[in-house]
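ping. complex inputs:
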Amino acid sequence: MTDITVGLMLTDNLPSIIGIILGGICIAVGVHFVPVGGAPAAMAQATGIGTGTVQLAAGSGLTGLLAAGYMYMTLSTLPSGVIVEPGISQIILICATGAVGAMIMISVTMLVGNWVYIYGVGVPPASAKKDYDPITGDSQAPYVAAGTVGQGMPTVCFVSGAMGGFLGGLGGSLIYCMLMWVNGDPAISSIFAIGVFLVNAVLPSYNIQGTIEGFHDPKFKRVPKAILACFIASLLCGIIAVMIPGAAMIGGA
Amino acid sequence: MGMGLVALMGAAATVAGCSEDLESDIGSQSNPNSQVQLAAQVGYPHRIFNKAISGEPPSNAMYCAVGAGVAMVLIQSMSASPLLAIAVGAFVAALLNGVFSTTSYMGRNASQTRFNQYVYLDVLRNHILGIMGHAYITTFCIVGLSYVMWNQDLINHPFPFPVIAMIWGLAVGAIGSSTGDVHYGAEREFQDFKFGAGLNAADSGNITRYAEAGIRSSMDNAWFCSKFGGPATGIAFGMVVFLDNWRSTAFSGWISVAVGTAIVILLILYNRQIEIYARKKYGPYPEYSGDIEA
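pong. complex structure:
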């Protein structure tokens, strides 16, 4: 493949690369919204969901990707069986479907997590980062168990988590749609979308350093650094994603 | 796609979620593993099974992808019956789980000999089949529901069969790690402490090592968690699979997006209700000495 061919391929697929970058940034910001308590939360020693950042973001975002993939197929297949490329308005619908799928997954997880904290462990949800819940105004500090940094998901964390799921699902679905524009193969696009998703979920976890409660957490202010890092990473991912699957589809190598 | 199929997938997911959580509880995988690992180091050697293969989502994603991959090969190249192929795929995944669990247990405990934490071969023998059995059930259910999604005559999802199984495996691991594991990590591992007192960071590693009779084993932990943590995980995963597929089946286009958003809003409101309930029921902690009113 000559340099000219590579250049043409990148130029032709510039909108897809931009879409992949936007999707990556959505994921990076979304990860910061998800209240992740890590291992301490599993012992009710920290506010948030008791698992790792990447695992949770990937779990919810990729569940949304499944819904988005199905919606993409439905919208791109005409009743006559002819397959067409979805337009911008349909891409918006696909991304919204993926975003809502991810929101459902993460909301159900947080709700059942709170069942376990409240009924199984006997602790009320409370944040240790704020004296009062920014949404409900409830006091938090008196409900934080001694020697811990909070437990469970109070309303502010729940809402923040739902927003994180929305952004994660949106980003993952957008990346999938852009990859489908490039190569039109759901198998290649889904695997690449998962890869790009994980890259953009891992990078912000260095910002989070284990735990974050959501948009009200002081660590949330580090978002710009994650956006910059994920912009660069997504740009590289976008170029690779366009060149490798794109080259395979046109028979080059 | 009929509602019956959606319900069947939800039921399979519920069983998968429950068995996934119990499998991780028997093996002390995922986050509560940190306490099992720490216990011997702070002077509390134990007979709890200790495997930390990886976080639950990647390990379950791997088992499910392997199970689906084997099933797909059998279906496509040998024209095997899908049910049989899924069963064989789940069996292969369970064997893989057994290999990882064995090496993980032996490696972890052998490295802690200096803390009087030994490799107990009877613990290994007694627990490994229970772990593999639960892994088999999880993989079978998830590969089965992934097959329903992938099959051209049923849902005809465009993603490859192993990728669908991998994504659901990742999701069940994330849910099990976030819900049922809390029951094991925050309650069962620290049952000596007062219910609802929270776990002071200073007590980390001081896990409960004696059972209702004799020394506690990981089977005792699975028995306890099967009463709440396991079923709760099953309900969570079943709800995710059912609600997400239900809104896409019963509605289409923007209406399905609106219905999904409405579900999320309802969940937020319900969460607020149980938060209020918990605050009223348990009240503030008496140890709190700050000046913020409860």
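The radius of gyration of chain B is 21 Å.
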